[in-house]
Amino acid sequence: MTALHPAESLQQHVLEIGARLKGPPSDLLVNSVFASELAQQLHLFDALGVTDIAQALVALELRTIPETEGRALLGALLELQKKPDDFVLNPERGDIYTNREAWLTERSVAAGWLGAGRARREAITTAFVLVMRKAVLDYQLALTALGDVMVEQAMINRLSVMPDYTYLQAAQPTTFGHYLLSFAYPLLRDLERLDLLFGQLNRCPVGCGSTNGSLIPQGRQQAAQLLGFAGVIEHARDAMWQADVCINCVSILNTGSITLSRLAEDLQIFSTQEFGLIELDDRHARASKIMPQKKNPFALTHVRAFANKMIGLSATVTASSRTPSGQPDNRLLIYGELPEAVRQATEVSELMAEVLEHLRFKADRGRQLIESGWTLATDLAETLVLECGLDFRAAHQLVGFLAGEFQQYSVSVLSPEIIIAACEQRLGRRIELSRAQLEKALDLLHAIESRREVGGTSMSSMEAMLNACSAQFTRYREQALILRTYLEDKEEELLRLAEALATR
């Protein structure tokens, strides 16, 4: 099969379906609108062939097509499925369906039975769903692989200390492992959403007849089984004109890409000279053509740019769906753009996994940033609550005052005497604070390990989260692999059955 063919003889290529239209479309309509529609449908070719073959098999089973013609039609469809060189897409022949039908008509009189009881939009919609179903599983597999890398890196760096940041200011001590694992949970939520989306896509639209079925039996359940669907979309009109499923899909792409964009933006900041916490592997960077010292984190830039694109696509898909309920224009762009967006999201997820696998965390710099600032201020305030009987508001006010007074120094400059004197001066209260209590409050590893409740930075808390995340990513991956294999097996089985009947 070749790409779009330039316009040739209109009489030679226009396929007339029925007799309602007496004249040909204008050159402008053909070269702009028809060509654009066809370009969005190129990737549906294989799935459309599988759909046609399944419906031809069902028609033979139900005897709604004569056996001789049915076998001839199957033979022609199988030949077309091989993408012969003489199949040339031409916008003068309309969309992907009518281009295929024109080729079949030129080779077999049995082609007249192809569209019995169904609209071309039904066939194209079914092909779109088949493509989306596989694409969603591929995306799930990419997210589970990314999740595995996150878990592995979080395990390796569970003791790699660094400041956590809010408002891009050092806030509290954490570990790079704990930080990274915070992005695993949004991935798991996206995998859960993708599970629901796959369930929606795994219902077959075949036999809906455009709005309310057909007088000619379509064998909806048989077709669904041949194509590997879990069942049919119950309402025929809903089967043809679903809009919410596409919106659900682009919404997941939006949330998933924004999660990765947030991580990418953080890592880009952490890789700067000013932060110096990580370094990307050279394979994920790009050199500057004018500034020799630069190592630009270009892979992260691509991840962020993809998120911007998904925000725009979300608006496009949603706006396209806001039409009267029987309008095909809500599909013309989505047929191509949505499967391509899922494919790109899969690639971006694979790229981010590779970036995480090969980046280097600078542990010495992480500790230096903590020790040179006031990230242990909250721990000190909480120690004053636990050991000295101050309420938290008072402790917060006291430590805030000390941070302002000694802003150019680290928290280690403090002594029990300084704190006791400041408390008496600022709060009018006398407290007792030993050096051992203060040293414990300002001990970095104690700060990390003392957060033992669910979700904290302690080793026991991290181990529980790492094990739980790993198990969930494994479950989603195994499920997606089983489904992907099942769909491939069903397609191979369908083609074998068609070949057997066609050559009998």
Description:
- With 504 residues, this protein is mostly helical.
- It has 3 domains: 10-116, Fumarase/aspartase (N-terminal domain) (Fumarase C, Chain B, domain 1, Orthogonal Bundle), CATH 1.10.275.10; 121-363 and 464-490, Fumarase/aspartase (Central domain) (Fumarase C, Chain A, domain 2, Up-down Bundle), CATH 1.20.200; 377-441.
- The protein has 20 helices and 8 strands.
- The chain has helices at residues 10-13, 27-41, 45-62, 67-81, 96-105, 120-156, 176-181, 184-201, 220-226, 236-241, 244-270, 298-321, 334-358, 363-371, 377-388, 392-405, 416-427, 435-441, 444-449, 459-502; strands at 161-166, 169-175, 203-204, 231-232, 278-279, 286-287, 295-296, 360-361.
- Strand 3, helix 9 and strand 4 form a beta-alpha-beta unit.
- Helix 3 packs antiparallel against helix 4 (67-81) and helix 3 packs across helix 6.
- The longest helix has 44 residues, at 459-502.
- The radius of gyration is 31 Å and the shape is elongated.
- Residues 6-17 have low confidence and may be disordered.
Describe how the helices and strands are arranged:
Layout (H helix, E strand, L loop, with lengths): L9 H4 L13 H15 L3 H18 L4 H15 L14 H10 L14 H37 L4 E6 L2 E7 H6 L2 H18 L1 E2 L15 H7 L4 E2 L3 H6 L2 H27 L7 E2 L6 E2 L7 E2 L1 H24 L12 H25 L1 E2 L1 H9 L5 H12 L3 H14 L10 H12 L7 H7 L2 H6 L9 H44 L2
Parallel strand pairs: 3-4
Antiparallel strand pairs: 1-2, 5-8, 6-7
Helix pairs in contact: 3-4, 3-6, 3-20, 4-20, 6-8, 6-13, 6-20, 8-11, 8-20, 11-12, 11-13, 12-13, 15-16, 16-17
